[in-house]
Structure formats: C-alpha cells, structure tokens
Amino acid sequence: MPDTGSAQAESNRDTTVFGERLPLARRYAEHLATSGVERGLIGPREADRVWERHVLNCAVVAALVPDGARLVDVGSGAGLPGIPLALALPAARIVLVEPLARRVEWLREVIADLGVAVEVERGRAEEDVVRRRWEGADVVTSRAVAPLARLAGWCLPLLRPGGHMLAIKGAAAADEVERDTAAVRRLGGGVPRIERCGSGIIDPPSTVVVVERNAGAPVRTTRRRGRA
C-alpha cells in the first residue's frame, strides 16, 4: 500500500523549493531522464535518480543566490545547475555557457519547451567574446566542471567585484579548498569557504565552495591548453 504520508511530505518539500514552478521542474526532470540520456547528456544509470541527485541537488543552491541576480552558469552541460536555479528563482537573469553544439541544441529545445527566460551561449567562460558579453555577473555557478583553482581562473573574470563564484562539489571539496586557496587568492578571489545547502530537503545536503571576487583586485584568466 502506498505511503501517502511520505508522498505528501515529498510534495511539500518540492513545493518549498520550486513553488508554482514545480510542474516545470518535474518536466525538466523528464527531459533529463529521457532525451538527456538518449543524447548522452546524462548517464543511463542516472535516469532513475535525476530528481534528488541532480534537480534538487542544484535547486537548493538558490539559498546562496541574491534575488534578481545576474547569473552565469559555466560548463552547463545538461543545464545543471542553471535550469533548476532558474526554476527556483524566477526573478534571476540566467545564461548557460556550454561549448558543445549537441548540448547547446538540447538545452535550447528544453528551454523552449519549458517556456522560461534563460539564454544559452555556445562558448567557453575564458573566451574573450564570452567575457565581453557576460562579465559583471553577480553569481557564476558550476557543477563538476574543473578543479577549484582552474575554475576560479575561468569564473572570477566574469564576476563583478563583490560577486560570488558558487562551485557545487563532492566529498573532496575540503581537500580542494586546502590545496587551491593560495592559487584562488592569486587569481583575485577571497578565501574559499564551504557551505551546505538543502539540509532537511536532501540528504546529504549539497556541498558548495563559495569564492568572492575581491573588490579592486585584478583577476587573471586561466586559459585551457589544447582542444576539448
């Protein structure tokens, strides 16, 4: 017999995160589990756990994003975390930056289907054209893109002074912070700190490394070597 109490609790939890956009969030999860798998954006083993492992895992990071923020999502891939954040934060102005054409095509199809005001930029964060178009952001996000020091070299130049880089990381976040703090500071960032988002909503909570772009500090862009 179905556990109606548990189902209701989960529904209340999800509504807390997405509000009236919950149906859109569930539709996005369907895209991930179907065409996202078929077109190689999500691994086939992830299809049955996209809601908590991917959608909620990203959406709870909205707690760290100011209302109405300009947000750039770097290396967006399947729209993570950018699309869940757009659904959880209707007032945010969000652009997804992704270099691979097949992923960009899928992202644009999904965004059109959802009917949300999210832009997609094909390119890399460190490219001059991307920086000119999107620099001055309040927040730059990423999820499983690169080690912290390299990520800071791509993301900090896109931020306004005082803006924040939010990097969703895994269990090794503390080790990355210990290893890369000096490099992040040389690149124009403050001391990285770790925040846990979504306690009481997801288990375990999402681990986010937060780096502020120092006001008045020059930032250096890290360039990639070779072709991806």
UniProtKB/TrEMBL annotation:
InterPro entries given in the database record: rRNA_ssu_MeTfrase_G, SAM-dependent_MTases_sf
UniProt xrefs under CDD domains: AdoMet_MTases
Gene3D superfamilies (UniProt xref): Vaccinia Virus protein VP39
Main location, first listed in the record: cytoplasm
GO cellular component: cytosol
Binding site for S-adenosyl-L-methionine: G75, L80, A125, E126, R143
Keyword field: Cytoplasm, Methyltransferase, rRNA processing, S-adenosyl-L-methionine, Transferase
EC number(s) stated in the UniProt entry for this protein: 2.1.1.-
Classification via Pfam families: GidB
Compartment(s) where it occurs, according to its Swiss-Prot or TrEMBL record: Cytoplasm
Molecular-function GO terms, alphabetical: rRNA (guanine-N7-)-methyltransferase activity
Keyword Cytoplasm among UniProt keywords: yes
Protein family membership: Belongs to the methyltransferase superfamily. RNA methyltransferase RsmG family.
Primary role: Specifically methylates the N7 position of a guanine in 16S rRNA.
The protein's name in its UniProt record: Ribosomal RNA small subunit methyltransferase G
Species assigned in the record: Pseudonocardia cypriaca
Lineage: Bacteria, Bacillati, Actinomycetota, Actinomycetes, Pseudonocardiales
Gene: rsmG
